[in-house]
Amino acid sequence: MKIIECPRDAMQGLEEFIPTAIKIKYINQLLRVGFDTIDFGSFVSARAIPQMRDTAEVMNGLTLGESQTKLLAIVANTRGAFEACKYDAIHYLGFPLSLSDTFQQRNTNKSIGEALNVLEEIKSECVKTNKKLVTYISMGFGNPYNDPYDVDLVLGFVDVLKTLGSDVISIADTIGVSTPENIRYLFTSVTQQYPTLEIGAHLHSTPHTAIEKIESAYQAGCKRFDGAIHGFGGCPMAKDELVGNLATEEIIMYLQAQHENTHINSSEFALALRLAEEIFPKH
After folding, report:
1. Which among 51, 43, 39 has a CA at the least distance from the CA of 228?
2. Residues in CB range of 236: below 8 A, 6 or more apart
3. Most exposed residue of 1, 22, 65, 102, measured as fewest CB within 10 angstroms of its CB?
4. How far is 19 from 217, CA to CA, in rounded Å?
């Protein structure tokens, strides 16, 4: 069972800039917790996501020590991939590929076809530098733009990504429109049709629906969950109102109740929770 903590997603939509030193302190604490992966930053345009303009500085300030946690950086083009691949400590490159052409244009200024071409180039760079590619299927449960959507479309994208060599595919509910029913149906369909692929869930949710979404994905066979402490975050490129992430503490609580080994150090996680409470209300 893999838990991916996403401070990048928690921070990216905040207007007030979080100082680099505070980001470094926070992520260094997260590295002690025992997460499988930390989605720590993004090598994207500073104009598009100003909060992430210091990702390179944050990377250079991390104390990796004996942590087994892997680092993931989001990229939106080959330039970002080249930058991320300079760092040996980055294990994963993440790329957002949308089912919605409207959102792909908003998020990366590309059509879906153009994004697939870029994704192929990023995969090539990953192979050269011994990194793995995580592709997020954005708007994986619907979109607000009336663009086409159905489960067969998701399955078609998964098939294309399998052919392109994506190492992990994470189905993302970018705006929080998923329900327990469609989560269960979609993950069951994908995992049954592609049993050898690593399929993750990157779900956004309001607090009162989070547990039922976690439960639905888990019961459908999901073994990889993205979350953010206290459910902070949301995609600033999707729509005006941000819908937060699944709260990591709720993911952990649910999985531990199912007797899953989450590999979490509870005392270090408690310190991370307190640090998050100090940082986020101020920004």
Report:
1. 39
2. 12, 13, 49, 242
3. 65
4. 35
Cα-based torsion angle of the residue sequence 218, 123, 40, 142 in order, rounded to the nearest 10 degrees: -50
Side chain identity, residue 193: Q
Considering its fold, how many domains does the chain have in total?
A: 1
Helix (H, G, I), strand (E, B) or coil at 74: strand
Q: What is the pLDDT along the chain (283 residues), one digit of tens a residue?
A: 999 999 999 999 898 999 999 999 999 999 999 999 999 999 999 999 999 999 999 999 999 988 999 999 999 999 999 999 999 999 999 999 999 999 999 989 999 999 999 999 999 999 999 999 999 999 999 999 999 999 999 999 999 999 999 999 999 998 889 999 999 999 999 999 999 999 999 998 888 899 999 999 999 999 999 999 999 976 555 444 446 899 999 999 999 999 999 999 999 999 999 999 999 876 5
Among the listed residues 256, 255, 249, 193, the one whose alpha carbon sits nearest the alpha carbon of residue 224:
255
Q: What is the residue range of 116's domain?
A: 2-282
- Name 124's Cβ contacts closer than 8 Å, sequence gap at least 6: none
CB atoms within 10 A of CB 226: 27
Residue 109 to residue 86: CA distance in whole angstroms:
24
Q: What CATH number did the domain enclosing 19 receive? A: 3.20.20.70
Residues whose CB is less than 8 angstroms from the CB of residue 274 and which lie 6 or more positions away in sequence, other chains included = none
Residue 183, helix vs strand vs coil = helix
